[in-house]
Amino acid sequence: MTIRVLLADDQALLRSAFRVLVDSEPDMEVVGEASDGAEAARLAAEQRADVVLMDIRMPGTDGLAATRMISADPSLAHVRVVILTTFEVDDYVVQSLRAGASGFLGKGSEPEELLSAIRVAAGGEALLSPAATKGLIARFLAQEGTGDGAERDPARAERLESLTVREREVLVQVAGGLSNDEIAERLEVSPLTVKTHVNRAMAKLGARDRAQLVVIAYETGLVRPRVE
User: Residue 113: CB partners within 8 Å, gap ≥ 6?
Assistant: First the structure.
């Protein structure tokens, strides 16, 4: 199955470089290019994209607004957004994760990392780039939430009560950045069992993918940011 990729960046040279890289892979194809967020949201629907590589800073409608537009459209529930940014950890990145992005990569990432991120996002397993440590993300989530829970979603916090003990346990491990295989080894269960728990947790909490599960785990207070 070919992964349909949409490129959204206001720099034509970068889009051309990404196109050459993506189109060189037998399991991927670039189905469109956008120079701003509004065009990206429109093309994501028109071209039936699976993954959008989204520049976070663009003139007009930026990547953050475009990510919100895509995640708010039920007909685009299958679309995964991977944010590309020069600054791998900042307020905009955290807002993008909250808006529905599956994760992000720095523009300085190696080509293999970018291609891997596309495949991971298309498979619904996206989290964060290797350079974006969990501790930094935790700190930004805490800052965005003002540290006192004022901006937490009460509905999601209540929905945590619907999780089984095992689902909560798996969610904590997901928030720690572990893969299904790593969680399975730690909890001494099969990877398929872990995947089932993850899918059930996503359904109960209204999360699009694992990246949003991480955000929810911090925002609801299930996982506390580490102080370094």
Answer: 105, 129, 130
